[in-house]
What we know:
Blueprint: E1 4-10, E2 21-22, H1 29-46, E3 58-64, E4 70-73, E5 80-90, E6 93-99, H2 101-105, E7 107-110, E8 113-116, H3 129-140, H4 146-156, E9 165-171, E10 176-180, H5 182-187, E11 188-194, E12 199-207
Parallel strand pairs: 1-2
Antiparallel strand pairs: 1-3, 3-12, 4-11, 5-10, 5-12, 6-9, 6-11, 7-8
Amino acid sequence: MTGHFLKNIGLPYSFVVPVQSEAFMDTHPDVLLAHSRLVWITKKIAAGHDEEYQEPNELLLVGYKKKMDMGYHDDGEKVLGPTVATLSLGATSTMFLRMKTKYFTGLHQTGNGINLLKDDPVLPGCLLYDSRRALKEQYEQGLLTELEYDEGRRKILKSTSDSFPRIKMELHHGHMVVMHGADLQRYYEHSVVPDGGLRFAATARYIKEHTVKPEDIWMGRYELPSGQAYSGE
Length: 233
């Protein structure tokens, strides 16, 4: 048996494995009400930012059996917009957010062993931040050649080590979490660990419509009767 149960509503979205999608207009009304909550919260959080607001057109429902969890991962697939919102239902759980190991250490594992990370962004909070930042600034100012920059990094970056959680959030039944920004998914990853009970997660995303077959676009659209869309009350 699998560790969790999946159902996708709206535009097609492959989560680890391809999942058959059901159109919003064909799903249960309660699912639409849940989705409208996530539409409301994403609009509150993301609509004021520079990029154009993209209303979620997909909803992934995941049911976790007792003692099952979701390991570290990101939602940075190229088909997705920059905003992801989740409604947590059932058992209390804890969400962790950490910097991806390769950005934390400046090193990454390949088939040829451990190598320097190309184009290291040197994010605040990464391992040996001050030393790495100083080297990168010298390189960007033309004071070091690429070979000298890489040699300097090799001297201070000896081995990989796991990153650690930067944010820890306790999620209770009905809590909503919004992650906004492509860089959040590019440089960080998250996991959710339930306290042992049965838990469900309803996660809404924007699927870029040009990545979907034209005949499937209608699956991500619906209208609720007047007064039924969630308004924060």
